[in-house]
Amino acid sequence: MKSKISRTIIDILLIVIGTFIMSLSINFFLLPNRITTGGASGIATILYYKFNFNLGLSILIINIPIFIMSIKKLGLKFSFKSIFATLLFTAFIDLITYNSYILNNRTDMFISSIYGGLVLGIGISLVFKAGASSGGTDLLAHILQKKGGTLNLSKIMLILDLIIISGLIIEFKDINLGLYSAIAIYISSKTIAIVFEGINYTKVINIITKNNDAITNQIINVLKRGATVTKCIGAYSREEYINITCIVTLPEISKVTKIAYEIDSDALIYITNANEVWGKGFKDS
């Protein structure tokens, strides 16, 4: 019970801090320069400059149909957090709305696109960490991923936001705004990938060999790592091999490959990324 309460408190703090950081990015870097990272805020930016609509209110209205969809697809628990995050986000945007001082002292557009994307990505990542969304394309990304898509969250968001950027270019007839917005989106998506999905400090090593006993013994006894072995057959040679799968940290890659090649110089080794690993020797579950 205590752990659930503490988890809920942490999630609320992450949402509050994350949405506050996001509003800073919008008001201090992106909105004054008409740069957008897509999503509901991107559409709201166009409405703000074309019709002087309230930015926070526009974002909230745009998100209503997305929330209805998310409740059906993602469930009430996730959607409740996302609605809470969006309400906070729109409130912070209106509370910290940029004024004449910010407008007269705004930074260079290139600098704004870099720092705007970076700060926004950090804010979105914190909201994601709380198991929520701030609405817009990041909520749509969760819905699409829930349907079984193969792309990760940051890539889905990148695709959706690039579509909105195309509308920005057409509306303002300024390709530079689109290019700067593309920079901001790219940096934002990369920041989310690093903060939310991991920076790939862990790797999955697969070793295909006939000397599996000697190699696995070295991995277990020297590196103190576990391994999984499965039988496999070469498609060309039709010979039977053993595939050793081992999850290691970045500095351990060279140690594993050295062990494998010293025992079997003909071993085939391939390495893939593991964004997050839970279990003994890695993160506690």
Rg of Cα set: 24 Å
Helix content: 55-70%
Largest sheet entry:
4 strands, antiparallel
Strand residue percentage: 5-15%
Order of helices and strands: HHHHHHHHHEHEEHE
Q: Numbering strands along the chain, what is their spatial order in the largest sheet?
A: 2-3-1-4
N-to-C terminal Cα separation, in Å? Answer: 17 Å
Outline: elongated
Counted by DSSP, the helix tally is: 11
Overall strand count: 4
Structural domain count: 2
Kindly describe this structure:
The protein has 285 residues and is of the alpha+beta class. It folds into two domains: 2-195, no CATH class; 202-274, Alpha-Beta Plaits (2-Layer Sandwich), CATH 3.30.70. It is built from eleven helices and four strands. It has a four-stranded antiparallel sheet, covered by helices on one side. Helix 2 (39-51) runs parallel beside helix 8 (153-172) and helix 8 packs antiparallel against helix 9. The chain starts with a helix and ends in an 11-residue tail after the last strand.
Brief sketch in words of this structure:
The protein has 285 residues and is an alpha+beta fold. 64% of the residues lie in helices and 11% in strands. It has 11 helices and 4 strands; from the N terminus they run H-H-H-H-H-H-H-H-H-E-H-E-E-H-E.
